[in-house]
Every structure is written in C-alpha cells, then in structure tokens.
Amino acid sequence: MIPVPHLEWHITHSCNFTCQGCGHYTNDGYKQNIDLETLRDWYLLWNKKIRPSELSMLGGEPLLNKDIVNIIYMTKDVWNIQDDQEYEIVSNGLLFDRIEGLSEAMIDTDCILTITKHSQEKNYLRLFDKAIKSIEESGIKYRIYDMTEEWLKPYNGYGKTIEPICSDDYKSSWDHCPTGQQNFTLEDGKIYKCSSLAYLPMQKRKYGDELSSKWDPYLKYKPLLPTDTQLDVLEFFIRSAEPVCSMCPKNRIPFRKETPLHSPRYVRNLYG
After folding, report:
1. Per-residue pLDDT tens over the stretch 199-227
2. Domains along the chain?
3. Using an 8 Å Cβ cutoff, are 55 and 75 in contact?
C-alpha cells in the first residue's frame, strides 16, 4: 500500500454553525448525512491501495449524523487503523453529550476528538465551555484547535454570490495554502486535492447557473479515481502547486469572523 500523510471526508454536509468563509461550504444550509453503507463503499475502494497516517471524519458537524457511533466502529475496522495511525473526529463539540454511546465508541477505537474553537463571543463561549466540561468528564482523548485569532479567507461572498479569489500566482497560493497542503479529501469515492475542490460541485448542484462562471475552471478539476494506476496514485500525493490552487489567495488573508451561531439568513444578508 502507498503511505499518504492525511485523508479526510465528510460524514455529513449538515452543520449547526454558519461560519463565514467556510472552505467546505457547509455554512450554506445543507441537510444531508452520508450513510454508513455509502461510507463503507467509499472506504473499500481505497483501503487496500493507500495507508493514511491520519484519518479524519468531519463535516459539516459530524455529530449531526445520528449513526456516528456505528460509523466510528466501522471506519476503524474497514481501514484497519493501527496504533501508529491517528484517527480523529473534527467537531465543534457542542452536541457531544447528546449522543448515547459516543464516548464509549471513541475510547474503544482510540479515536481523538479535535474540537474547533470559533469565537470569543460570550453566548458562544458559554455553550463551548459547557461542552468542554462534559467532554473532559467523559474520559475521551481530545484537543482544542483555537481558530478565534485567525480565520483564513478562501473565497469572496456567501451562498450563490461566492467567487474564487483567482490568484495570478498559483504557486504562491500553494505556498500559503489555507488547508495546510495535506487536505486530501475523499468524496463520492474519489480523492481530491482539498476540501474546497471536493465540495465545490455541491455548490454547483445547488445553484446551477446562478453560481459565478469564475468557478468553471475549478469545476473541471479531475480528482483521483479508484481505477487510476498505482503510478497515478503516487504522483497525485506528491504533486504540489497546480493551476487550480489559484482559487485561493496568493497571500494568506486573515479575518476575524463573527459568532458562528448566526443563521444562514443573517450571513446571507451581510453579503447582500
């Protein structure tokens, strides 16, 4: 098998947050879980071909998938995750104590909860601190990824008004990649260079011709297919900058977002 540094995938496109500039576009009101059997089918296309050092399940908000406990066990089994690999769920954490059997499943499978902290706004912090207390008491492994000081801008606009940055220097865009250059994403059985490319077709299906034509070159991106050769797979995972990287800025554009508790309607109004 070919060793790869990281692989991630959505187990839901739904989210209970509306974060401005979400690189997964799940701030746009999606209501769709990925079911256990579909995920298993995706895994079986790749689990004998690649061996990720890190395996990450996310969304959206993964705790919105009510089958998450079974998904945790199935994922560990099908990928045959070993002690030298890292297995995680990336979550905002607020729903942790609502899911029966979640902490037991995470302890049984040695799955880490990576909690994203999004804001210093007082109402959000009240909910966040309550969630952290519950998570601490559960005995699972967890860590906090603090995103309150810097949130990177991957595109302009919101919803159907989004437009790519269209950098004039895609190599610099790669050098300043907001996803960290190892954001390989499994979606619909195919592997994409990053989440923004993987879930862009979702926006196109939602908005059709209302979506800016500036996205057209990026919608032509060809992901890695299960039928591709071993040489294709090797080349894919060592490839660095390529023209599609121009969808993001050539210099990192940090901004401090508002509370993620706003509704999609509120954020949509911010962008007219």
Report:
1. 999 999 999 999 999 999 999 999 999 99
2. 2-150+182-209+256-270 (3.20.20.70)
3. yes
Q: How far is CA 241 from the centre of its chain?
A: 20
pLDDT digits (tens, 9 = 90+) for 113-144: 999 999 999 999 999 999 999 999 999 999 99
Per residue in 26-71, pLDDT (tens digit) is: 999 999 999 999 999 999 999 999 999 999 999 999 999 999 999 9
